[in-house]
Amino acid sequence: MLSLEEILSDLEQKSKKSREELLAKIKKKQEELSGLVSSEGAAHLVARDLGVSIIRETKRELKLKDIKPDMKNIETKVRIIGITDTRKFKRKDGKEGRVASLIVTDGTAEARIPLWDKQVELIDEKTVEKNDIIEIKNAYAKENIFGGLELRLSKYSRIEKVEDDKSIPYRVIKPEFERKKLKDIREGSYEIRGNIVNVFNINPLFKTCPKCNSKLEKDNKGYKCSEHGYVEPVNNLIISTIIDDGTSTIRAVFFRDAAEKLSNINPNTLSNMTQEESIDLIRENILGKDVLLTGVVRKNKIFDSLEFIVRDVKEFDIEYESKTLIDEISSFR
Ligand SMILES: [Zn+2]
Asked: How far does the centroid of ligand 1 lie from the alpha carbon of residue 233, in Å?
């Protein structure tokens, strides 16, 4: 990513506006987006508003999933996971042409690299073979008619086989938790982002056996485990909420570590409080909070509705979040 300084000097030249003016615009843009974008991100948006292109030759290695059609000067490292048969065809001038494609991946996505005519010799002479890792320089990207990504080579492009350091997988690795909007989720594993809009008034403490983690029965002598008898119980936190992401809502339940991370509350501090006091404290700490969660969506058979069992409360990756936001804003134009 270009630094703010790099973007600014480029913008100054191309827009003929003063640095002060540009900085003010960048600050204003950041404020408009509630500080969600970095100053670099805001500078890119300002450039776009001014109709200035500051996408320069990027020489850094790109991940296939981040490559968009019409990007140029692409440098990337991928593994060949397939090679198509060579197809011969007649050109308009009557000469015979040849084409074959390398199917490649870097673990984030797949792409095809069509090789034409003399380039097919790379395959014929086994300069590159299936399972090899190759480095590609100066390629450009196109979307093929099937909507797939193609990396195309010009006469300035380079393909080079490099040592297999095992850094690149043999297939696309799907993220365990895929980001989804609530309106689109079904049963399965997801990452969601939304605001906590309600906290249910249920007892936030449940007591378990320190030896086997089972739930304990309470009688007049204390807390009893069916296997270990009377024990000193462990306090565990459970928080049941409603999350709203603007597209829909879902009941989300936080247990133990996830509940503590969400609320910043140690469950032992609640053990001398009433349920109402505990819920008030929890609400104070989490109502309205913007959260990023991974977890599993299950069907609650009693309520016949979906609920989200939270696995983890994640830290925001600001760069990812601002990129997602920019994509969303762009899609409204
Ligand atoms: Zn036990």
From this structure: 10
